[in-house]
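Q: What structure does this chain adopt?
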Amino acid sequence: MNQFVFIFLIGAAISAGIFGKVTTRGAQLVKFDRRLAVMAVIWGVCALAETWLGHLTGRWILSFDLRERDIFLVHIIAGALLVVAGMRMLFLAFERKALVEHRMDEIDVRHDAILGIRLCLLSLMAGAALGLLEYSLKEVLLVIGCMSVCFTAAGYFAGRAYGVGLCRRAYMVSGALLCAAGVLVQLPGA
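A:
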């Protein structure tokens, strides 16, 4: 599989998870203002930072003297990280949670930034998997950063327009893509 296509698949999965969370916040908004752009950039920066840290962790693990048998284990670990992140998103999709109706006049930057840090932990796991697979850091950061910013802004607008109904679907898409990526890593040529 082409490396860029695989990185795009991971970026889409991470961004779909972010989109799902942000739709719930967008559904609570009464109006949009310039803080929306600030939040989109903050979520993008959180995803970038955690992906970068994960990538560095994956590369650090590879810096040890690995034998041929260990390279096979690296692929297993990378796939397991992606599947675990995917399973987490699927659990979020099927979790029964009471929806509290609460309208916000404006975006709460502090609260949304904390949500961004918490949710982007799956970026850390995906970054570690991509680092273990020795994918280009520039391509990884470019794809995940751009997609995160775009999906965050789209999530706020979609949540405001369509409500929280898209949240579970976005989590399901995210989980399915991450699980599929974890399986694709195990195939020859990945």
